[in-house]
Task: structure prediction
Amino acid sequence: MIEALLSPLWISLATVFTATIITFFTGIAVARWMARYEGRLRNFIDGILILPLVLPPTVVGLGLLMLFGKNGPIGQLLLLFGTTVVFSWPATVITATVVSFPLMYMNARGAFEQVDISVENAARTLGASEWRTFWRITLPLAWPGVAAGAVMAFARAIGEFGATLMLAGYIPGKTATIPVTIYFAVQDGDMNQALVLVLIVLFIVFASLSALAYFKSKSYKIVTV
Amino acid sequence: MNSRYAVIISLVLLISVFLCHGCSTSAATVNVSAAGSLTDAVGEINALYQKENPGIIVTGNFAASGTLQQQIENGAPVDVFISASPKQMDALQSKKLIVDNTRKDLLCNKVVLIVPGDSTLGIKSFNDLIGDAVKKIAIGDPDSVPAGQYARDIFNEYGIMEALKPKLVLAGNVRQVLQYVESSNVDAGVVFTTDAKISKNVKVVADAPDDINKKVVYPVAVINTGKDMTAASAYEEFLFSDQAGFIFDKYGFTVVGR
Result:
């Protein structure tokens, strides 16, 4: 019984931890780029990046399946290397990353756009490189929004069900995350297992909401001397 | 002022549409919950029944027998339940959810091993599944999907369950197993012969052993939670008629007693 609870927990934590790290760095990079991008395709690119957030998870799952399946472009490429992503643990990371990315991206971009560009320019005139300006000025100033994005991405990733079931399938011990396990536990009539897993998810989500509140309180203020 | 009235009137109209949704039909309704493998056969039978009995509406709810059992136990208003294995019907019977004397064995089916139509792995029997070339096998979740139960029984009988466990991909219903094999995302799957017949993209490579196939029985019963007992009993009787039998035959089922 304990095994049946620990397995989905480990899988979910490993999946969400990996997915959040990927989303964190790619989200920041893309948000930073889009915050200052003035090109004509701005809204179009923005729309594509946010798409997984507004599409039903089953549609996202189907799209990923068509991409990574035996007949899909990435799937065929992977077949050349002798591997496949469908029904494997990496598939859980892929779906979690794809659905949580828009949240990280939107929060981070909003935060970067709020940073007063004259402060960045001041750094530049004082000789700081772009990299230094980003790490020492822009990011710290944008931190509350960026951290909020990370927490929301984490929470979304841990609750991901539809796309995960389609791409990774239900394989207890390998790809069965907590939400997927809850679904099958209910179908099997095992309400005890389902309820305990629900409580675990609630606990994790409340913990992340507390982390969110904590991060939002840690912000830099600009003071004039 | 005008826009506010417009909003109020629209809301009133919208709410009345929802309220009237249930009162338009004075016809009898028969809610049938049937195992996923019966989707096409019972779907056709329902259409025929409605044609022959104008004024009666039959709604078909198809899912894994375990899911259907859960729904009934939680109070879903079901009139007739057809399960793909006795296990779910036994559970309902022990909870006194079945109307006395209405439980009958309706159909028999056979369990088969299928592979994708373009498979080159040369799988010819259940034992071939242990080979290294077979990486993923799809079966229904044994705890709630009868086809999955039977698959587990077959693997246990051949003594290969432990060897196959790491390769199993569990599906929520038998049609999903079929879809997994059709799309070549798994190397093999266990479904009913009636499911394999529906698809053009899979090959049947082996039959389940006889002693397992003998146990594959689909019981039917009238359920307590339903609303119209008479309509339900009449529908159940129709399932045993020649016309229904003809449709079941067409899809590859064996009607008990024919």
Observations:
- Chain A has a mean pLDDT of 91.
- The first helix of chain A runs from residue 2 to 36.
- The two ends of chain A are 63 Å apart (CA to CA).
